[in-house]
Amino acid sequence: xxxxxxxxxxxxxxxxxxxxxxxxxxxxxxxxxxxxxxxxxxxxxxxxxxxxxxxxxxxxxxxxxxxxxxxxxxxxxxxxxxxxxxxxxxxxxxxxxxxxxxxxxxxxxxxxxxxxxxxxxxxxxxxxxxxxxxxxxxxxxxxxxxxxxxxxxxxxxxxxxxxxxxxxxxxxxxxxxxxxxxxxxxxxxxxxxxxxxxxxxxxxxxxxxxxxxxxxxxxxxxxxxxxxxxxxxxxxxxxxxxxxxxxxxxxxxxxxxxxxxxxxxxxxxxxxxxxxxxxxxxxxxxxxxxxxxxxxxxxxxxxxxxxxxxxxxxxxxxxxxxxxxxxxxxxxxxxxxxxxxxxxxxxxxxxxxxxxxxxxxxxxxxxxxxxxxxxxxxxxxxxxxxxxxxxxxxxxxxxxxxxxxxxxxxxxxxxxxxxxxxxxxxxxxxxxxxxxxxxxxxxxxxxxxxxxxxxxxxxxxxxxxxxxxxxxxxxxxxxx
Amino acid sequence: xxxxxxxxxxxxxxxxxxxxxxxxxxxxxxxxxxxxxxxxxxxxxxxxxxxxxxxxxxxxxxxxxxxxxxxxxxxxxxxxxxxxxxxxxxxxxxxxxxxxxxxxxxxxxxxxxxxxxxxxxxxxxxxxxxxxxxxxxxxxxxxxxxxxxxxxxxxxxxxxxxxxxxxxxxxxxxxxxxxxxxxxxxxxxxxxxxxxxxxxxxxxxxxxxxxxxxxxxxxxxxxxxxxxxxxxxxxxxxxxxxxxxxxxxxxxxxxxxxxxxxxxxxxxxxxxxxxxxxxxxxxxxxxxxxxxxxxxxxxxxxxxxxxxxxxxxxxxxxxxxxxxxxxxxxxxxxxxxxxxxxxxxxxxxxxxxxxxxxxxxxxxxxxxxxxxxxxxxxxxxxxxxxxxxxxxxxxxxxxxxxxxxxxxxxxxxxxxxxxxxxxxxxxxxxxxx
Lengths: 480, 433
What we know:
Number of strands of chain A: 22
Oligomer: heterodimer
Distance between the termini of chain A: 68 Å
Distance between the termini of chain B: 40 Å
CATH architecture of the largest domain in chain A: 3-Layer(aba) Sandwich
CATH class of the largest domain in chain B: Alpha Beta
Low-confidence stretches of chain B: none
Shape of chain B: globular
CATH superfamily of the largest domain in chain B: NADH-ubiquinone oxidoreductase 51kDa subunit
Mean pLDDT of chain A: 95
Helix content of chain A: 10-25%
Radius of gyration of chain B: 22 Å
Helix content of chain B: 40-55%
Number of strands of chain B: 11
Number of domains of chain B: 3
Number of helices of chain B: 17
Mean pLDDT of chain B: 94
Largest interface: A-B, 37 and 30 residues
CATH topology of the largest domain in chain A: Rossmann fold
Strand content of chain B: 5-15%
Radius of gyration of chain A: 27 Å
Strand content of chain A: 15-25%
Structural class of chain B: alpha/beta
């Protein structure tokens, strides 16, 4: 355990660590552009320079191994001069078009310009002209003028997603990031993790095409959440319009919709990455919603629907429930408490792998496309749904039930969030809230529980499943 | 002292002098036999260290010290690479060895491979070298056929293969770490140190990379002993040096000089003086990355690294460019900066951006749009690059800029003030009318 000194303070380090890592662990911030904790060391941006005490030159800290008694200084005059110079070099051919750049507001180059340079460019020369809007894939566009060639994206596709989709073409200040050819390289289009390069890009060179020019990030709020796309349950941030910046004139839906999804760094589950499915969560959660309770296709009030459901449950002798594996731990507990004894319960998969989807891989993606299947099965068993001949009521909670296989002529109570043809055929239908409208927990396949918070107020007319179960159970207790 | 010793250019070059039979007739491969049959690897290493042999690629690092980092019994494969990328403008000395004395290199490489316990050695050859490639490959075929390279060399237990890898035309691939990255089949980017290449080099194994000329001395050292080698040259820089001289000189070419040889004698006697009897304006001593020395500075100097260093420059790669009076230094710097801009690999920020920046500034000056502050700006850019790049190229370009601006600033100021050159933008040596 070598002891090293950073700015005079002693720190215990591990032999294999670099100065950058020790500083990071101990809350001393050394600027970095190319360095990323999950990627190999490139050492090309030269912003992380530090000075070893007694030396008259600077060295990069991201590639500096620790040694006993090493004394480094992170904020000397020489270090500041070199950082300032590096910022001058980096912005030399950078267009500084922050006004129209999606990265503005969360751009490392912007932050560092304020922190380490703060001066206008000392160059009078015209800037190097490079490609704008180079389509790397249907999801990502590349602005080569903004690119500072840190190669984080190249290293990500080689070391993490292993698609080897990107490389550097040409030399010098005309170098550009381009799709890589050759053996073993897959197009970025086929990289299920491609959107992570947008996050790790320290500038606005790699941009999400679905987010392009949609929002300024300072109007957005990040709400911690969990991706329901598979049993991994990656922790994510759901970005949506800040309530205090709510739009008043445009479609009010803008104030209650998902702008984008980014990973929330979580070493226990997903690290700093998520797959592209999480990025497309809006497509999953913002499908047309059901807004009103119904009995046999007729819109009714909630109380009328509750009364109808109570009546059905009350007279049923052998009711069966198909429990949702998208339900939160709280909802599953509430259902168990209310109806666990009354119903014969089976857990159903709300979602199956889509045709064009990666089913399972070695990085994050799991074959079970439901976030809470393990918890549901722990509570309700893992038997496949079967319907005894005397079944006289079926309660279907969530999506994915095969209605053709339900016993014919038996009344159905359906709870669902989205518009579906089955809603109108059910004896009673309750429109449920989606996960962005409530808080709760999912427990993933490793047994790790993560929380998600409410992003928006529930849509008008919808009801939380927990409320439905509690109200139905209250009456159940009274009548029995 | 005459300083006329020769180690490499010891025979008249003929149409067949590069062949194995003639090389053997000159005594080639006797050192190999001596090394493999009578010496241990450690003994050879000690002999090389004792000889004081320095790298001939430009950095003049002690070959023995580089070798001594390799742990012979560490159980890993080791690699040896001969750096034949020779890309420094004005440098073409290794080419002479590759074309005219390829067996000297092959023999020395096998000895070095034995001393470093290397099974596979590489020659990384400049892509444009097609003639030298054919010569070396031909010599290698001869050596393989004669059992001098390959399995069980000369009937001993030692086996070593030499592979020639041809570059694709990048200047930066002459830098040792970019060179091995290129051999590995990757983009020719230099690597960050640590780790040193002698610890983790080619394929992450201990690797020694020596210049072709450095390696070619090994056979001579083994044959004649380190004491004989030290007797040549100067105490701090033993041996001889191949100098490739070009520019405005009557007889450009490759000359072998003993360290400490008189500069004046090289230029005026051996090379026949300047073209058209012009006066010597300045000399780029060892590749364009070394600082220029004026004609007056060179006058009394000897080709001794210590003396050249005291004069503020270095002998570098041995690529000497003699420049005649009447040459425009602004245009010369423009040519150099165009080269550096073109060859910057673009990996690390200061060099990638700084080279283009300086190139654009000098282009603007030449176009008559310069400002006096541009000169200080170029020096500032050079200083900011210095020591903050992954490889030495950022530093090197800075030395060229600072060197020329320090001595010929008035020419730049003249161009900026008058919008034209002091010497009509001349880069050629013309007969004065």
